[in-house]
From TrEMBL:
Family: Belongs to the HMG-CoA lyase family.
CDD domains per UniProt: DRE_TIM_HMGL
Pfam families: HMGL-like
Keyword Lyase applies: yes
Gene3D superfamilies from the UniProt entry: Aldolase class I (3.20.20.70)
Name used for this protein in its record: Hydroxymethylglutaryl-CoA lyase
PROSITE patterns listed in its UniProt record: PYR_CT
GO MF, one example: hydroxymethylglutaryl-CoA lyase activity
Keyword S-adenosyl-L-methionine attached: no
Keywords: Lyase, Metal-binding
Residue ranges annotated for the Pyruvate carboxyltransferase domain, each copy included: 5-271
Biological processes annotated in GO: ketone body biosynthetic process; L-leucine catabolic process
Length: 298
């Protein structure tokens, strides 16, 4: 097992995208709480169609406030070269680009089939690299699609091979609808690893069906040292029916910390951030630690 795991906080983007729009000041309140946890990487927003994701329509305005957080590394998700150009213009040069392994989900999510999405990787990577930044491909529906069912692993490995060939810096595999289980996580990581060589591999899990933390632990046991998580378990995909619930940052920090794996995140501050997340969206969140708290320790 690795001794350290890096957690990217995704509540600001993946967490809020499914919610009703909240004011910029509320987003900054949440970001203040996230910054206090000690996390280093934050997926802060997305530059996508504001009609499809109105909760993140203020991406440029939020980006203009990020100078307040000099110790954080921010990234932005995009769905097209145009989105990447907008992100870079707003000062965000760490670019995440989602490619859906399922054609049906790709059409629902970004309006084009997977092959067309893959063809845009070089342009997006070029925009990021020309700005002195990095490009990451996130393979969505890596295990299952809500429309097409199980995703053939070959679909994932083909996208991974293209990402490597096109000079992408990092790759992540995402359980977009929260259906996978540990054995399938092990199998897919084993299939992807030889394809990407030394490229950094991350993973993104949802807890929709209760297996998210088990899958995250399995990924770590397979050598993955980059995981996404969301304060309070906030979030879900607006284009996937029933796909609620990212794994909660504080729950993941608790699990890994109790196993002797350092995340650099303060657990009590993470629980407090989950409380702020619940407050700004105005409803309870599924976090176990937010409900039960940490256990007493000697």
């Amino acid at each position: 097992m690795p001794s350290q795991v890096s957690i990217r906080e995704v509540a600001m983007r993946d967490g809020l995208q499914i919610e009703q729009p909240i004011p910029l000041r509320a987003k900054l309140e949440l970001l203040d709480a996230i910054a206090a946890t000690g996390v280093r990487e934050v997926e802060v927003t997305s530059f996508v169609s504001p009609t499809k994701v109105p909760a993140l329509a203020d991406a440029a305005e939020l980006a203009a406030e990020l100078w307040r957080y000099p110790d954080l590394e921010f990234s932005a998700l995009v769905a097209s070269p145009g989105g990447a150009a907008r992100a870079v213009a707003a000062g965000l040069t760490s670019i995440e680009y989602v490619v859906c392994a399922s054609d049906s989900f790709s059409s629902a999510n970004v309006g084009r089939p997977t092959a067309e999405a893959v063809a845009a990787i070089p342009d997006i990577a070029g925009i990021a690299h020309d700005a002195g930044g990095t490009a990451e491909v996130i393979i969505a529906t890596a295990w299952d699609c809500p429309f097409d069912g199980p995703t053939p692993p070959a679909r994932v490995t083909e996208i991974a091979a293209s990402a490597r060939a096109f000079g992408v810096d990092r790759l992540s595999i995402a359980d977009t609808i929260g259906t996978t289980t540990p054995a399938r996580v092990t199998d897919l990581i084993a299939a992807v690893r030889p394809i990407i060589g030394e490229m950094a591999l991350g993973a993104h899990f949802h807890n929709t069906r209760g297996a998210g933390l088990a899958c995250a632990y399995t990924a770590v046991s397979c050598g993955v040292t980059r995981l996404d998580a969301s304060a309070g378990g906030l979030g879900g995909c607006p284009f996937a029916p029933g796909a609620t619930g990212n794994i909660a940052t504080e729950d993941l920090v608790y699990l890994l910390g109790d196993c002797g794996i350092d995340t650099g995140i303060d657990l009590q501050a993470a629980i407090a951030a989950a409380g702020v997340a619940s407050s700004v969206v105005g409803h309870p969140l599924p976090s176990a630690l937010l409900a039960a708290g940490d256990r007493k320790r000697d």
